[in-house]
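Check out one such.
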Amino acid sequence: MPAPASRSGNRKPDQLRPVTFEANIAPHATGSVLVSFGSTRVICAAMIEPKVPSWMRQQGIKGGWLTAEYSMLPYSTLDRKQRDVTKGKVEGRSMEIQRLIGRSLRAVLDLQKLGENTLWIDCDVLQADGGTRTASITGAYLAARLAVQKLLDAKKISENPLLDSVAAVSAGVFEGRELLDLDYVEDKDAEVDFNIVMTGQGKFVEVQGSGEEATFTQTQLDGLLVLAQKGLKELSALQTAFLTKQLFKM
């Protein structure tokens, strides 16, 4: 049986792709970050709207709201991707991902402390090489934290509503091996594919996983979760280092 091919960049099975964050990529946003997981690059921007959705007012629900939108730009993939607006509706995959981003951020957000504001999160994929949803969640938290700091500095809110950080990473089985942070080549042919969202304190927010025309064992499931937890701990540390530097400048 031939030996499995080496990963791009000669990564080890439990190794993340190079991860970078660049702040203020969208100057008109309240907070923004360009996040890169290897060749996957996503602009994550947060903007504050000083009102809440009508359904909250109608139901008398106090506090604020957070909502997310996600899109892949036409040139983010090798073949041009048609914009959702030209189809007249958001495609199912985009809707699923933007709901996941919203759920992930709301899991660490005290909506009461946000006041009567809506925090909009926009994630636009510049370049897709696998893991766009996990990169979006990881960068979206950073954009939200930068935006919240501007609210605090302007004394528009009195307390930080973000209770913890949140990040996401993929893990899967490819060519019989359990791997962390799948790139496109690994993801498209993975036998098993997971996306795991966790807080900085190590609590699970969401675990999405399935066998792609395959099954997986309890041992493999446990192994993938261990891989993800390792990667998420590293991502949380990178987020903390980035914010320590950025918030010092503000």
